[in-house]
Amino acid sequence: MTGTDDGTKAGTRGPARASGPRVPAPWVRTRLRAAPAAALALALLVALTAALAAAFPRAVDRYEDAGLRRTLDDASPRRTTVQFFAPRPDLELSLGEGENALREAALRKGYDAVLAAVDKPLVADRAQSSYGVRTSDPTDASDSFLARPSGLPPRVALVAQNALGAHSRAASGRLPRATDPVTATTSEVEAAVTTETARTLHIKVGSVIHVPGLERAPLAVRITGIVAPREPDGAYWMSTPLIREPSLIQLPSDGGTYWIGALLLAPDAGPVLLGTPGKPERYWQVAPDTSGPTAHDVSGLASAVAALESGPGLARIRERVDPLTDATTDLDEVLSSFTELRSGIAPLVAVAAFGAGTVAAVVVLMASGLAAERRRGELALVRARGGSLPGVLGRLLAETAVVAVPAGALGLGAALLAVPHARLSSAVAAALAVTVLACVALPVRAAFAHRAVRVHGGREDIASVRPSRRRTVAELTVLVLATAAVAALRRGGTDDAGSSGGSGDQLVALAPVLVGVIAALVLVRLYPFPLRRLAGPAGRLRGVVAPLSLARAGRTSASTALPLLALLTALTTAAFGGSVLAGVHTARDHAALLATGADARIEATHALPTALPGRIRDTRGVREAVPVSVAYRAQARRGSGTAGETAALVGVEPGPYGQLSRELDLGGFPARTLRATGPGRGSGSGSGSGSGKAVVPAIASPSLADRFGTAPFSVQLEDDSKVTVRIAAVRDVTPAVTDLDFLVVDREALTRRAARPTALLLTGGHLDGAALRRAAGGGVDVRLRAEVRTAYVHSPLQSGAERIYTAAVAAGAGYAVLALLLALVRAAPERSALLARLRTMGLTRAQGRRLLVLESLPQALLAAVGGALTGWAAIRLLAPGLDLTAIAVAGRPAPGGTARLRTDALSLLVPSLAVLVVATGVALAQAWWTGRRGSVRELRAGDGR
Q: Residue 851 burial (CB < 10 Å; 0-12/13-18/19+)?
């Protein structure tokens, strides 16, 4: 028999054999192929979480940057420009040297030195910055053709500023020139004026204005052109508004008025100012570039401004320009106002961020716990067959990182595209934190579960697992942290937290989360006991569903803490955030109501036309128009020799005004409170004599009531009429007056002149501001409550913070629902198997649905009730330290005092009810799906559950 060397028969083919050692299949590839759905779900979770985490700091940067730009734009260039000025050159210099110091070349050299002293991040806007020489003390111009409102001659300032032609266009004539070298003794110079100055002072091209001379003949200034500013609101013109438009000055002594204007000389005509008594000074105006700075540059900007005002920058300028150079600006105050507003808003946003972040972290941990539970048997078998714990953990880390790292990068990229033009470092750090948490969660969980080698574990329900000492110590530590945070917030408030900027601020922002954590830990420990007590009475009921559901709910998995923590944290954050937003809206509504006194207010400094109330009542949307007369400078005094106290005397019709006050909850009162009784009562509106002999009942503000008591006292009105009043009631507020001491009396007690209405308080829905203004005509002020409320949302810091807060609360709620779904998915295999076994014993589908609903209802009810109570407790505990004024009105003048946090019922109840609805719906869906699949698969022998 013929054969081969390896013993096989010739002509036959055996199986191919590997020529080398066998290569095991790669762990990571095998695991990903074995569970692609789980890997995809993890990737989606990590990508979504990383995107939200990375987008949050960039969104905060975006609205803070927009808020800074709005703050700088709203401030006038006169406030934001850094102005340097130096007096006339040293008198010890010769006249020629002094004249040369005022020429454009010398001023340009000083301008370059000033710009060189500006440190970043402060950047000068060279297009709007300027320099020149001017008279700091305007002098009289006695020419007869100039405007004289009250017979006083106008005063003019001589200004020789650079680049006049680049910032203006000639409306008529031409720009001034200095063809010959101008000196202090030059008899005539050319100048231009702006269109506004020419119109106001009656100046024309060719006019000659004579300015007094200093030890010489008057200087003749010939107007060669009238110019129109190219950018009238730019810093070039508005840093010194006088060069753009004149100003009317009123003398405090006799009330006389006169104009002050500016004559714009050629840039090289500065030396002529030495021959005038106007005290010439050199100046350099540095306009900041408001488009470049970002919110995180504010501290650097403040330091740079301080250096120019009184620091090293000013020292360098004095060294290179003039030792007497000084600087002034309000830019530091503008930056301080922005910082103050941001510090009042940032802690509130941090509360929402920490709450949503905590819920998201818990969901990621729950996802890893679900994976660990699904692979418990596999990992236990690997450990039992000799797998080392570091080796197993390394492979778990590798297979998780292969999924999580690309997903985190994808989420970061999505965040960068969705929220452009913001800092990159914070977004990368946030996405990296999410990715690292997703990578290490499963290995760490497996390390604790499989540190000891065992194949079969014991029961791990709440009934059998007792809290360890380590867990007790950890819970006590969290309790101490939560107590410290709540105490810090109640004592210092978010204002102190925002200004300190330390780790204590983060602890304060975590306070609502820590309150939810403590509640979760306490409820997890107490949760089984009432269920077990109810199991006995339930066992005596007919049927098996109720006792079985209570028994299973009382022996639920010991890992209930994470889902409950997620739900309680989300519900607490939602209740807290909803109450914050509701408090902000309420504060704005109340401030707007106090500012207008009604839904709309029409007011004038004089008496309103008699026909105006009728026209206003006929306007669409107006339900009622209540006329009032307000004397804002009435003097209340007891006795003729005592000092008077200024108060607003409000004359009203007691019936309509009292009803309006009651409807708006602004110091309501019955009409009889203001009805005068006895002799001296007028017979009609405005029929009082004004002699002050009849005593009129009045409603007073608290401070007036404290001073005058209930004894009668005299009130002198602005028309010198008097009325004697007696305080009959005290109210904190009244619709007609805001932030002033007031006295409200019946209009019948006033003279006809004093009783004529000066304001109308309107009520109604959907008031049309344009229609009201048309009906009111000119000379009156029309304010709508809705418009005033809109004006309070002025800064992007406010609107941006509200959007971020709403998004954070919504994200937290979404993650809470996801946590609830993960908890139910984790228990789904066991519940499916239970239903299958019970159906073989006669359980109907309807009973199966009730069983799953009743089993999941205690946990959902616990989370709902616990979340509502925890949210209420957090609000009650933290409200004294929270000031919502900054985010509500952004530092704008607003009545009503400090806006405090108050409990919002909808914010407490709606999220809790949503948890119950979701839990019940998922249980019903699971029962329906299990019934469709049948029981054969669930009862297969060897099914590892």
A: buried
